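ok, trying the design again with the full structure, not the truncated one.
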């Protein structure tokens, strides 16, 4: 999950709940706090340097996420976690670039002799978001994991 922090109109959840032929037995929803949008150094263990640059804009150097947005984001993540738990699921919460989070998941599953069937994410149009999508797609190809980029149908121009 990325900015699509809703259960009721999420295209992936809708597809999985309305089709029986998808072939998957388990679903692990994941939200990762993106280091280019949110300053993640506060999530890093004491004494360890963040592997990511500060979440400042490239041109103006201002913080990309202020305290009000950070609070709203945290509340939204917690709300979707509770919604998923109410449906018998859950939400894994991580910090880091999406490619890094997916790589850690692939490595952990391999270490326990499990296979990751696919990574599904909803597409976004921003430059950094598209870069993340391409990085995850390339990682999935390398690791022989399925990848699907879903269209976020809530934002068509005609609407």
């Amino acid at each position: 999950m990325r900015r699509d922090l809703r259960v009721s109109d999420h295209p992936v959840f809708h597809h999985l709940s309305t089709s029986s032929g998808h072939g998957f037995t388990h679903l692990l929803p994941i939200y990762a706090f993106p280091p280019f949008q949110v300053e993640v150094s506060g999530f890093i263990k004491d004494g360890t340097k963040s592997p990511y640059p500060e979440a400042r804009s490239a041109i103006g150097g201002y913080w990309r996420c202020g305290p009000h947005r950070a609070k709203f984001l945290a509340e939204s993540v917690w709300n979707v976690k509770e919604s998923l738990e109410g449906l018998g699921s859950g939400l894994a919460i991580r910090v880091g670039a999406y490619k890094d989070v997916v790589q850690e998941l692939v490595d952990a599953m391999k270490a326990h002799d499990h296979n990751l069937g696919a990574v599904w994410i909803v597409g976004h149009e921003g430059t950094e978001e598209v870069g993340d999508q391409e990085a995850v797609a390339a990682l999935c190809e390398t690791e022989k994991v399925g990848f699907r980029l879903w269209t976020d149908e809530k934002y068509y121009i005609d609407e």
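Keeping the full-length input from now on. The first strand starts at residue 30 and ends at 33.
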